[in-house]
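Follow-up to my earlier ticket, as requested here are the two runs.
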Amino acid sequence: MARYIPTVTDKTFIPPSPSEDDYVRQVTQAEPPALLSETDPFALFDTWLQEAVAKEPNDANAMSLATVDADGLPDVRMVLLKDVDPSGFVFYSNVESAKGRELAGQPKAALLFHWKSLRRQVRVRGTVTPTTAAEADAYFATRARPAQLGAWASDQSRTLPDRLALEKKIAEAGLRFGLGKVPRPPHWSGFRVAPQSIEFWRDRPFRLHERLVFERAAGGWTTRRLFP
């Protein structure tokens, strides 16, 4: 008997919209949500991130980063949040990568945190500036040595002939630094996204989601709620 092999065009793999009973079960099983704070977006983000760290299976600090290229075509990928405070959201990368080149040409970006287990999202839009060399040095020093060597070896976003070429470059970096300290490469640094707006989104039954937007204004933040 031939075994059925699904294809990407098989619509049975797209989940149907929840029924009313599905929503009722969701509400019954969910913990009562606390009201969203309307005063400090960073305090609220810190609370949500702590809850995500406790409940997400992995990488609670993962965020999608959206940039645009020279033609205005959007580009998006996952990166890891490494610091956050009222000045912005920080991540690190090879500055000669696609994202680094795009941010050099258009220093604006959008971030999205999606915590599936909590049914929550946070969207951030803002301007991007480099971190200081001291900040980048301090974070690079905390990375595992193989990751430090990888930062020297990888011509990120450039064409790789084969896996062996990467492994050869990692071996060369290992020989270069021996057992000594691995310094931060000049092409590796950090970026800080200073938010102009931060939107908190929380799943609610029947697609009647809760959305609260903080927008930066002179002297503080303004807030408004959005229709779902």
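Run two:
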Amino acid sequence: MSNLKPIKVPTSADVEAPDVLVQSTYQAIKDSILGNRLRPGHKLIHQTLAESLGVSRTPVRESLERLYQEGYVTRIANRGYFVAEIDVQEVRELYQTREALEIFSLQLIFKTEIAPESITALEAINTRYKTLCMENLSRERLMVDREFHLALAALSGNQYLRRTLGGIFDRLILKRRVEGFHDLRGIEPCEDHVRILAAISANDEQAAVGFLSNHIGGACARFTRYLEPGDAPTSSTAKS
């Protein structure tokens, strides 16, 4: 729990200081979950969190309730709060929603004029992603993949869609254990991105949608296989 960073306590000059303190506490805990400093399944103890963040138990209690409502933590009667884990059904539903949103945003992109520098920016993100694809699966790699897809969705001009998609990525990433995940695809995910961008540049909507759908469907299939009982690789065979 010492990995949590103490938050800045509001001063008397702050407007509605109690609300500001609760928001700061909520954000600090959420950032620790997203940053994998608080890992899936970890029990969240009010007093420990309060001491680590330098606040009272009240903003911690309110923050945990909000995170519970948003699905970032779970609440078990007589046991307390825990960082949320993920099951196969939730993975499928998240990926189904992600695919629907990304394909819709891609279709919107084809109704607009895309500046060459936008494609160049996406290619730069994918270059960083390629380097990470040559290494073991890491949270950094997941975050750069998220960056690519959200930057692509942003080209649709629909910022609400992009924010919703960002929430889906956050849920998939924060609840995902990278340890033991067996991924031998090499740079294949990066090459998927290259194909999508090439189809956009060629104004080939059908090909772009097909590449994107296959890319997301493949990611869902690999993740669900990993979560299925008996299918997760042992530490002796895992690459990451």
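The only thing I checked on run two: The longest strand covers residues 73-76. Let me know what else you need.
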